[in-house]
Specification:
By secondary structure, the chain is an alpha/beta fold. It has helices at residues 3-14, 26-31, 46-62, 73-84, 101-106, 114-117, 134-141, 173-178, 187-201, 214-224, 243-258, 268-276, 289-293, 334-344, 347-355, 363-366, 369-374, 377-385, 399-415, 421-426, 429-438; strands at 37-43, 65-71, 93-97, 142-143, 156-157, 160-172, 204-207, 280-286, 305-309, 320-327. The protein contains 21 helices and ten strands.
């Protein structure tokens, strides 16, 4: 059975129409919990900016209050780990970055969702989980299957995507028209454009992340996958320093050399801002940028941007990642937290958050005729999802440690000129292998 088919069949089994939903109406579903407060850990992120605009409607509909604890992404994880390790923590519902899902399950910090969805007193019969984009559900929600994080035997649902993303190329159509440039379809064309744009237009060619740690690794992975590389082989041995890994890092070094000044210190926010403020002609990263591009309060390039697929290397491959929602194992109001999670990710609210600048999670939203007229880039985004790779990075429990403490340091050294691409990646093999061995992998 193909992976995507497994996701569909698993969701049909777990959330099938045979469950005893009859007689449970929305009002009775919420009435028991009216007056409770869901404490919700959320990040500073464009999708959650949009969510805040629709959140008051939940309390109005249900009587359930919501208190949000909003923190920067790194600080958010630190506080979540602290709170979820207590006998009873402050959080009922939490947002997590995709890399954290395996770690949170391994540490027994979040709850599987099947019991909630199989409870007819809580589950919405109109929810239709099969409408959620399959790669998003797999990538952000499943733990315990093949490799520990993919769909297949043993996989269980621990979270729902909310702020999920894939990668696409945004480009300044006015600049491309001015210089009669062709939108790159391949990495060979992509690489040639970098110097051309930088020389002809006098601005950065491509906005990118590059800050030491997760941000630099994310930027490198964007090129590693389409160029045919992978972090590990099938035996969990490091292969990131092979020909593909080095080529991807050299490409990223060229991005830094031809891009806006300061990329080596850019996180996602700085990369977004560089493109939105007209300091770069291209952007290759998250689809979450779309809501910002169209916002005149945040963007100087409204009406000047078009979208294309992630260029092809030896294969088509776009990223899978972003943010999800999970119920804390030690939640005080777990059922009410689930009701909020279910409401936010429902068909109606997926469309509502998209209309105010959020990222769609459902096929029905991406195909909605009115929304496609408002956001024609959804046509490209849907095509990009065909190539979104759920194994884009190894989401094992120790990945965040490898990501931040090893790869994120070495790749930064290459981007700041301290090491060559070859030396940076070769020097990382031993520390990454040691982390894997300490985690119990026989490598």
């Amino acid at each position: 059975m193909k992976r995507r088919d497994f996701v569909k069949s698993a969701s049909a089994t777990v959330f099938g129409a045979s469950l005893p939903f009859s007689g449970i109406h929305a009002q009775s579903r919420y009435s028991k919990y009216a007056g409770q407060t869901v404490t919700f850990s959320v990040p500073s992120h464009p999708h959650y900016d949009a969510m805040m605009k629709i959140l008051p409607e939940f309390t109005k509909e249900t009587g359930i209050k919501v208190e949000t604890d909003r923190l920067a992404m790194g600080r958010m994880k630190e506080k979540q780990l602290l709170e979820m390790a207590k006998p009873q923590g402050d959080y009922d519902l939490g947002c997590y970055v995709v890399m954290w899902k395996g770690e949170y399950v391994a540490k027994n910090l979040i709850r599987p969702l099947e019991p909630f969805f199989q409870n007819p007193a809580l589950a919405d019969p109109a929810y239709d989980i099969k409408d959620i984009i399959p790669v998003y559900l797999e990538n952000l929600g499943l733990v315990g299957g093949p490799k520990g994080y993919l769909a297949g035997p043993g996989a269980k649902l621990y979270g729902l995507p909310y702020g999920a993303e894939t990668s696409v190329l945004a480009y300044r159509k006015d600049i491309f028209a001015k210089h009669n440039l062709k939108v790159p379809e391949t990495y060979a064309e992509f690489g040639q454009l970098l110097r051309v744009i930088n020389d002809k237009e006098g601005i950065g060619a491509l906005a990118s992340r590059g800050q030491a740690g997760h941000q630099a690794v994310h930027a490198w992975l964007l090129h590693l996958n389409p160029l045919g590389g992978s972090v590990f082989d099938d035996q969990w041995r490091a292969r990131f320093n092979d020909k593909a890994g080095i080529a991807a890092l050299k490409f990223l070094q060229e991005v830094v050399a031809t891009g806006p000044a300061g990329i080596a210190g850019y996180g996602q926010g700085e990369s977004n801002t560089a493109f939105l403020q007209g300091q770069a002609a291209m952007y290759l990263d998250s689809t979450s940028l779309a809501g910002l591009v169209n916002d005149p309060a945040k963007s100087k390039v409204v009406g000047k941007v078009s979208w294309a697929l992630h260029p092809m290397g030896t294969r088509r491959a776009s990223q899978s990642g972003g943010l999800g929602l999970a119920i804390a194992k030690n939640a005080k109001n777990a059922d009410a937290g689930f009701l909020l999670m279910q409401w936010l990710t429902s068909k109606a609210q997926d469309k509502a958050v998209t209309k105010v600048g959020g990222a769609p999670t459902r096929n029905s939203t991406m195909s909605d005729a009115d929304l496609v007229r408002q956001y024609p880039e959804f046509i490209t985004f849907k095509e990009a999802l065909k190539y979104s790779n759920p194994d884009w990075r190894p989401i094992i429990p120790v990945w965040d440690k490898i990501n931040v403490q090893a790869l994120g340091v070495g790749i930064s050294e290459a981007l700041t000129g301290k090491k060559t691409a070859e030396a940076a990646l070769n020097d990382l093999v031993a520390p990454v292998t040691q982390i894997m061995r300490e985690a119990g992998y026989k490598v």
